[in-house]
Amino acid sequence: MSYLKFLECRQCGQTYQIEPIAACENCWAPLEVVYDYKRIRAEVPRTQVESRLPTMWRYKELLPVTGEPAVGHSTGFTPLVAAPRLAKALGVRELYLKNDAVNFPTLSFKDRVVAVALSKAREFGFETVGCSSTGNLANSVAAQAAAGGFKSFIFVPADLEPEKLINTQIYGATLVKVSGNYDQVNRLCSEISQKYSWGMVNVNLRTYYSEGSKTFGYEIAEQLGWRVPQNIVVPMAGGSLITKIHKAFGEFKKLGWIEPAATRFYGAQATGCSPITTAARNGTCEIVPQKPNTIVKSLAIGNPADGFYASKVIQETGGAGEDVSDPEVVEGIRSLAETEGFFAETAGGVTVAVARKLIRNGTLNPDESTVLAITGNGLKTIGAVREAISAEEAIRPKLADFEDRYLKLHAAASA
User: Fold this and answer.
1) Of 10, 73, 158, 278, which has the fewest CB atoms closer than 10 Å, so is most exposed?
2) Are 165 and 156 in contact (CB under 8 A)?
3) For residues 119 and 300, what is the distance between their CA atoms, to the nearest angstrom?
4) What is the pLDDT of residues 224-268, one digit of tens each?
5) Phi-psi category of residue 214: left, alpha or beta, with phi > 0 → left and psi -120 to 50 → alpha
6) For residue 263, what are the contacts with CB-CB under 8 A and spacing of at least 6?
C-alpha cells in the first residue's frame, strides 16, 4: 500500500504529480515528496516496523516506491556502534559511529539512494539509467543497474580515484570520463536527460533518489532506542544527506515514534571545497560556487544542488558548519582507524576531523550524545593515505631479524 501523495516545491509550494521531473518548473528549486502521514500514523504502528527484516525497506511506507523494490533488497540497517576509544581521543562523553562503510552492495551510503532511484526507474518504465558522480554513486548505480537488468551510463570527472573507476567498470557499466569537474559533468547529464528517455538518478529521478537518504536517519533513531542524538556531524557534497536526516527525524516525531527532542546538525566539508560550510559560517543560505581543490573527491561539488537547504538546516537547528584541510582529513582517517578499527574513505576523515575541531573550539558540547556519519569505505580512496603510511622493507625469515627490527624498537620506544 502506498502513502505517496504528490511532489511539492520546497521554495514556492507548487505541487506536481508523481512523475520523473528534475526540479520545480516555476522556480527551479528542488522538489519534496509528500506522504499521507495521518494515514501512516493510524495504520502503521512502530512495532510493525520493528518486526521486519533489518534492511532499509523496513521503513517502506516512508519511501516513494509503490511496489516491491526492484534492487537493493539487502541494503541498509548498517551498524550504529558506540566508539569509546575515539570518544576518549576527542574528549567527548557519548559518541557513536553510523557505519555505512559496510553498506551493501558497494560500501557506501549511496546504495540507499540508488536502491530507491532504480526501483522508481523500473516503475516509470526506464530501461536505461545513469548518473553524474564523484565516485560512490557511480559504483552503486553500476552495481545495482547490473543486478536489476538496466543498461547504464556513468559520467564522472576524469581525475577520479582509480579505485572508484575500477569499482564502476567491473559491473559492465559504460563509464564516460569527462574532462571537467563534477558541476560540468552534471550539466552534461542534465542535457542528456532532456534528449533521451533515460532515468538519470540525480537529475530527473533526484527527488525520489534523495529520499533513500532518510533511512540513514531512521536507523540512527531506531538503533539509539527510538531517540535522536543531541548532535550529529554529517559530511556534505551536494548537501542532500544532512537535509534528509533532518527530514527523517522530523517524520518520526510527526508519527509519534520518538519523543520530540532536538538535534543540532553540524555540516562537514574539506576546506578545498567548502561552499556550504562557508555559507553557514557567514549566517546565510546563499551559496557562492567554488572550484574544488581537495583530495576529498567524493565531496568535491563546488555548486551544491541542496546547499541552500543544508545551510538552512545547520542554522535553524543551532549547529554549525566547519571545514578541514587535506592533512587534517588524513589525520581524521588515521584516528578513526587506530582507535575504532574503521577504515573510512576521505569523507569519513572529514567528519572525524571536523568533529575534533568543533569540540576543541567549544562549538560542540562534549557532554552531549553525538553521532558521526561515516558514509564510505577507505578501500576506495587508498591513494589519499598512501603517503602517510610508511613503506616497510622485508626482513629475512630469521627470528633474529624480526627481533632486531621490531622488538628492540618497541622496547626502546617503551623505555
Assistant:
1) 158
2) yes
3) 27
4) 999 999 999 999 999 999 999 999 999 999 999 999 999 999 999
5) alpha
6) 228, 229, 230, 231, 232, 246, 249, 317
